[in-house]
Amino acid sequence: xxxxxxxxxLLACLFLSLFAVTVxxxxxxxxxxxxxxxxxFDRPIEPxxxxxxxxxxxxxxxxxxIVGQCVIRFEHMVVQGSSDPNNWTSGVWLVLNEDQxxxxxxxxxxxxxxxxxxxxxxxxxxxxxxxxxxxxxDIIFYNN
Length: 144
Hints:
With 144 residues, the chain is α+β, with helices and mostly antiparallel strands. It is 35% helix and 35% strand. The chain has a single domain, classed as CATH 2.40.50.140. The radius of gyration is 21 Å and the shape is elongated.
């Protein structure tokens, strides 16, 4: 079957359109694909805290592992990108039970890796936080 000039032109336009759409949404698909993969294979993804704060919906219900600064004390349980414990715009609230708080309590910011399931916010104490980790599976502290 021979293709006419118009059919070839139409096919080329369709191909170029598909290519352009793929290039345009590629970065979004990367994070969305990681989040979906995390939900299916139970393998954590590792976004930076600022990525979670900026776009919590991209990671909603995904298993994540975050490296940042942890502060765990009464009414303040967070992992964040900055060491300022009052900078709630750079962090994620941690939903911990009483035993976890007693086990991991740290009044000063400490370097840590937290693994848990992200839920987009508002969340945390008084709904000030853009996202929260619940449940928290593990926290590993590093020497500062």
